[in-house]
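Quick question about two entries, pasted in order.
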Amino acid sequence: MASKRKWDQAAPENGEGEGPSAKATKVEDGKTASEAAAAAAAIAAKIAAQFANAGSPGPGTKDPHDGEFTHDIDINDVRNRYLLTKGATQQQIHDETGASVSTKGVWYPDRSKATEKDPPLYLHISATSKEMLDKAIGKVNDLINMDMGSLVEDKSSRVRERRKWPEEKIPIGIDSIRNFNVRAKVVGPSGMFVKYIQQETGTRVQIKGQGSGFVDQETGHEHDEPMFIHVTGPDEQQVQRAKALTEDLLEVVRAEHAKMKTLLQQQQMELHQAQVQYAAYSAYGVCMLHSCPSLLGASLIWHTSCLCMILVCIFTWCNRSHGLYIGIRAATSR
């Protein structure tokens, strides 16, 4: 019988068997990253001060190893204290000025708790001349006033470079005509056609350009270009697949547009012919009325008959046009 592996066994209860990581100190709830970084810097400064302060006298007390000129600078509440207590920083000041800089005291978050034996954190500067001392003091003050920026990285203000996705722009190339909304025809009922392409290819499909209703966030208005379909996606093959489906959709929409355009032209032509005939009949009736006033009643009957005939023709054309339109919609929806 095979023995059980360690990951097959039940987890220990009540924290038994936990490693050192389980005992690691957790950051208190509600503490911000800046506060945590500041606390870490303070602890480092405190440790450095304790090592440097072992057996050293308090502020104002003459150290037998000091030079003739000395000066103490309180850095307990200085934001850049971590930089000032670094050995590399103090060595740089010594190399540039010849003065000795050391860390003294203890860092207190609340300096009111400081004692005479353990004073607040400060820098002790020792020099053999007044000129060297002044130079060192100036260097320390420059570091105190230096802007160190944020102690932690501000992720909210970080400018993230976004990889540019492959894209395609497919011009629609359909002019607007009466009773034919180009954008609605391309998008489909409730966006059905565009959603289908997006789901099939994993891309983003948007209608942009003049008359699309898409407002660019940077400019605050539509693109100046004629209406087009914008396809973007993480992969070039996905974009090309979406482009092929989009062009197939546009082919169907263009065919429907051509039929509707032909129908409108036919309607306009027939209506124009009816208007010409009505004008001719009206002119003939007026001539007959002038030549024979006794035909007034006949003329009115003539005009009324012509008008009724034209109205019947228009009604017939409208019914036929509506039937053709319904047929086109049924054909394209299949």
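Here is the second entry:
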Amino acid sequence: MDGLTRSLFTLAASLASFALGKQLGKRTASRLPALPHLPSALKWLITILSIALYALTIPFFVRLNHSWRPLATAALLLSFPGTLTRYVLSTQLNTRLHIFPLGTLIANEFATAVLAACHIIQRAPSPPPPVACSILQGIIDGFCGCLSTVSTFVVELRTLRGKKAWIYFLVSFILAQIILLLILGPAWWTGRIRESDICTFG
């Protein structure tokens, strides 16, 4: 019941935020100046700076304090692979089905499966060492956080509307629950993991 309440509240808050943003955009779009077209040199500069900043996350992860690095650098380190995976899935698969976006569905369900697996590994009877625990937290916050998407999901629900929107929502929600049941269920039922047991970062 707690999980259902959280899910419905998150969806309701996201839909309300989308509706508010849409209305604000309609009322302010005509009053805001249009963004100028960026020259090619500036685009290349931004690209190079982005790559350089992402590369810095590697030495930061290695050198910074172990007690707090998983909350920042580990997530940054693994955020780009998650973002790239979601982009590829959406661009290649979203138009394969006429009823709903297949790429977004696969991205969200795959992120759910990875989250469940990391949850189990973090709470294993023989906990992983601090570095591995940091990587697991980075996968949860960075990779899965960027691979899964509530915002795009909500936009797609509003775009589909009617019967297609309901089918998309129910397939996404029910499939995620089945995935969690299949991955987390056996570990909980056999007593191999407990919520209170978790590996440490340092």
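Reply: The longest helix spans residues 162-189. The chain has a mean pLDDT of 86. Hope that helps.
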